[in-house]
Write a structure and sequence with these properties.
Structural class: mainly alpha
Strand order of the largest sheet: 1-2
Strand content: under 5%
Oligomer: single chain
Distance between the termini: 31 Å
Shape: globular
Length: 294
């Protein structure tokens, strides 16, 4: 006897796969790396166009990776788990610290459609007029525009690595016609790349985008499968507020039980139930102050 697969699971089979030659080809010249980055971005664009991909969750997960990269560029040692704690375990009146501020900046940058106002909210230390000027710096193809925006910020504000990388990804998103910023450049660059200029910086950005787009597409497919699993078990959840809780898990990288629309004890039970069903994971490995995510 055979059973039909649920529609939301079967639809995942239509998600395109990254061509093997994108990851295996050797990039020697600017022409080579530009071609590969364009191919990788085109593939990612196709993946992002599928309704099965949990877009907000993907952006949050990529924002965490970008924040982790920026924190490393600054010489700090905090990793993804530390950044999650800094953001999700804040009590009223607490300050998130430098690493936590970096994580919050990236989260704010991806949660709303790209605009000068939204970027100003993510980067409050910058004036809106300055953000607009830097975003309008680049000309040409998407990655070139992003590299030129990155270079413009680093030239005028040499220590503003985080702002430069956020604006570079914003310029890339605008050039590609994406409504939201999708963090790609920060996660693919090396610290030494931030000291490059001109041709060398463009080369580094193309390579960064290729590597990051490949990883982002792979993550999108993984999250689509996990989201489908979570949606599949949702009807089994009887707790009042469970459906709203599922929607939160589908949009946020990490969730504390206290952030769910249920009483504390019910929220913890729901999280444990979802872990037992294999729909979410406990992210910290701790017995207390736990965080959960798809």
């Amino acid at each position: 006897m055979t059973f039909a697969r649920p529609d939301h699971i079967s639809a995942l089979d239509t998600l395109p796969r990254m061509p093997a030659w994108v990851t295996s080809a050797r990039d020697e010249t600017l022409e080579d790396v530009a071609f590969l980055s364009g191919a990788a971005l085109n593939h990612l664009h196709l993946v992002l166009g599928h309704a099965e991909v949990p877009q907000a969750l993907l952006r949050e997960r990529l924002a965490l990776r970008a924040a982790e990269a920026c924190v490393a560029f600054s010489g700090r040692s905090e990793r993804a788990g530390d950044l999650r704690d800094a953001v999700h375990l804040l009590r009223p009146g607490d300050l998130p610290g430098p690493a936590g501020e970096t994580c919050l900046a990236w989260r704010r940058a991806v949660e709303r459609p790209v605009s000068i106002k939204a970027l100003g909210r993510a980067l409050p230390i910058l004036e809106l007029g300055q953000i607009a000027t830097w975003l309008d710096t680049g000309k040409g193809a998407p990655v070139t525009r992003a590299a030129m925006a990155l270079e413009a910020v680093l030239r005028e504000a040499p220590r503003a690595d985080e702002a430069a990388l956020v604006l570079a990804d914003a310029a890339l998103a605008q050039a590609l016609g994406w409504t939201h910023l999708v963090p790609l450049i920060a996660t693919g660059l090396k610290r030494a790349d931030l000291r490059k200029r001109g041709h060398d910086l463009r080369l580094a950005c193309h390579r960064a985008v290729t590597a990051s787009a490949v990883e982002a597409a792979r993550l999108a497919v993984d999250l689509a499968r996990l989201a489908a699993l979570l949606k599949g078990v949702a009807p089994k959840l009887r707790a009042k507020g469970a459906r709203a809780a599922v929607e939160i898990f589908l949009t946020q990288d990490a969730v504390a039980p206290s952030a769910l629309p249920l009483p504390d004890r019910a929220a913890r039970r729901l999280c444990d139930r979802l872990v037992d069903l294999g729909a979410v994971s406990e992210l910290t490995g701790r017995d207390t102050f736990r965080l959960y995510g798809v």
